[in-house]
Structures are given as C-alpha cells and as structure tokens.
Amino acid sequence: DKELEKRGHRFVRYADDCNIYVRSKRAGERVMESVTKFIEGTLKLKVNRQKSAVDRPWKRKFLGFSFTPNRNPKIRIANKSKARFKERIREITSRKMPYSLENRVQKLNKFLNGWVNYYQLADTPSVFQEFESWIRRRLRMCIWKDWKKPKTRIRNLIRLGVPPWKAYEWGNT
C-alpha cells in the first residue's frame, strides 16, 4: 500500500486482492510489470499471473462486484456471483430434498440475509427484484410438489380462497 501511494496510484485492496487504476492500457501494462517486480523481488511474494490482468474495470470482478461501463459507473453484482447465488437457492429449494416448508424458509432467510447484506452496495435493484420473484416461484414449486395429488391441490387451493372451478382446473394440470 505504501509503495502504491508513494507512486501516486489509485488502488483498492482487500487482503491479497488488489485493483490498481490507471488511464491507459499501456500505463496498465507498465504498472503491472513494475508492481509485479516489486512484489516478487522486494516482498518475496508470488503473483498469480493467470488471475492478474490489465483490463477495463467493467470487464473484471473484485470481491464479487463489477462496474457498469458508463461515464458515471455504478457498482453491480458480478455474473459469477449471480450464478453461485442461483445454484445455492436451487440446492435449498430442490424438490428432491425432503425439507418442510418452514425449514426451507429458515435456510433461505439465513442465506439471503447474509447475501443481501454483503451486496447491498450494488446499484442494481432490478437484480434483487428478479431474484425475489424467482425465489417465490421456486417456493411455489416446492409447495405444489408437497401437495402431490390433484385432490389435495384442489382442497388446499380452495382453502386459500381460489374459486372452486379455478382450483379444479389448476389442481388437475
């Protein structure tokens, strides 16, 4: 950090992850070479060259976040983070798992609270709205699977206030 500040670079670092921001690709390559030489030579640390790159900020991810390519960039959730989120939700709401609905909701709440608190910095409310509707659909799928027989589905739909003719139609689909 002190070396980067001494050189006048703008950077963000968390633990061993670091992003250094410069104006051009040529400057980025020059800084990458000199910083790598400093880290490996002076600090005696190893730089993972496969993960290291000179690229535009919106094409890279940092701690699960990336940026929009606008003149005034916004923070967004990286695509890999969204994919991992969906995979975890699929595990919790899998129809194969014999969890009760209360247990599923409890696991979901635990996971979602942590996830939302971590990604609350993101300027993309549409992603959260999309995920909310998708999770509700997954939970409805679990409930529908629990009701198994058309007779049970019809009875439970009527209990929920659905007109009998519509409950019969939906229960038999």
Structural features, described:
- The chain is mainly alpha-helical.
- 55% of the residues lie in helices and 9% in strands.
- The chain has seven helices and four strands; from the N terminus they run αββαββααααα.
- The strands form two sheets. Strands 1-2 form a two-stranded antiparallel sheet. It has a two-stranded antiparallel sheet with strand order 3-4.
- α6 runs antiparallel to α7.
- The relative contact order is 0.07.
- The mean pLDDT is 88.
- List the strand order in the largest sheet: 1-2
Question: What is the oligomeric state here?
Answer: single chain
Helix fraction, binned, reads 40-55%
Give helix and strand order, one letter per element, not per position: HEEHEEHHHHH
Q: Could you tell me the number of beta strands? A: 4
Alpha-carbon Rg, integer: 24 Å
> Structural class of the secondary elements?
mainly alpha
Tell me, rounded to a whole number, the average pLDDT. 88
Shape: elongated
Tag the structure with descriptive keywords.
7 helices, two-stranded antiparallel sheet, 173 residues, 9% strand, mainly alpha, two-stranded antiparallel ribbon
